[in-house]
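Let's practice the habit of predicting before peeking. Look at the sequence and jot down your guess about where helices and strands might fall. Then scroll down.
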Amino acid sequence: MDLVHWHLNTMKDFRTSESLAPFELGIADQVWRYHRSWAQYHATPLRPLPALAARWGLREVLIKDESCRWGLKAFKGLGGTHVVGRYLTRYYGLGDGCADFPTLRAHRDARPQVVFTTATDGNHGVGIAWAARQLGHSAKIFMPRGSARARVEAIRAVGGDVEVTDRHYDATVKWVAEESRRQGWVLVQDTAWDGYQDIPQWIMQGYLTLMAEEFLCRDRPSLDKPTHVFVQAGVGSFAAATVAFLAHFYGDALPLVVVVEPTEAACFLRSVSAGNGTLFSVDGSLSTVMAGLACGVANPVAWDILKHWTTAFVACQDAVTARGMRILGNPINGDERIVAGESGAVGLGLLSLIMENPAYQDLRRRLELSAESRVLLVNTEGATDPVMYHRIVWDGFLGTE
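Done guessing? Here is the structure:
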């Protein structure tokens, strides 16, 4: 069984489209300023792994570690806090931007309570429920069948009303969209469709803070330009927001970007392989330990960005992220230990195979990975499912048994 399938993007043309406009640097700075208005905010660390880089013959390996974001163990809270803030700013009649946290809190009794709702594998739901509660509102969260108990309880712990459905993720998204219309709830889903664009865009804009912390920080030197950036994709919103930021920051001199998906939910790989610009969905059980990436229906706005600016798309078996989790959890020669969950470690697992396994030397050559390469990856989550984390890191579970 091949652990990795990949395809170079023949559609890459650095095209500036309408899809890029909402993610320009000025907007990223505004979103970051909004996040800094929350008392709980602090920038997540960028962790260099010099011993690992030396082992692989690379100049640098850098991990943006989102496992400590907001105390919620995942980057998703960036989108959740921003979308709830943007909606409430408009709801209170405070303008079209995003009022700061103290202003929003001060208005929490000005109008009836809002019920926010979403379908989620866990992390996004935690972010929405936490943000809603912090700002004086409530959240009803729906999860697909098979969701980890720890992720269910994490949503309840921050005040969310959560229900596990008997549907897979994409079917849950469809059902919640219909139910929200019937109940008058505010749907906060991170994928777009006809007639539903504003809220997914606000979520994506929230993710801009992740890169702004490293590239727009005025209190310290900005990050040296990476030569390569590995980003995970579920529906593609995080990947596209990251790529859009880099496109605005570097223009057509941006780093080589590699988008990574689970093999069982590789809608972007399927789409780029077709080579005609069409976005395809993926059917089936979407069975993977990478629950945060188990999405068969992608965000078309994300695709419009990724197809023009991404170098390669790679689909990985669960064993790849399991390898990444173990490497990060067992550092060598003084490197920092990083706790990475199943969706957080797949980029590092892929890089390890590219640099160590002769079967992927062609991909290494095509990506121009060398002694001059600075590789930036994002650990998007910590151990949000502790049971699965220990099964993989302690017991050697590969996600394929």
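How did you do? The CA atoms of residues 77 and 127 lie 4 Å apart.
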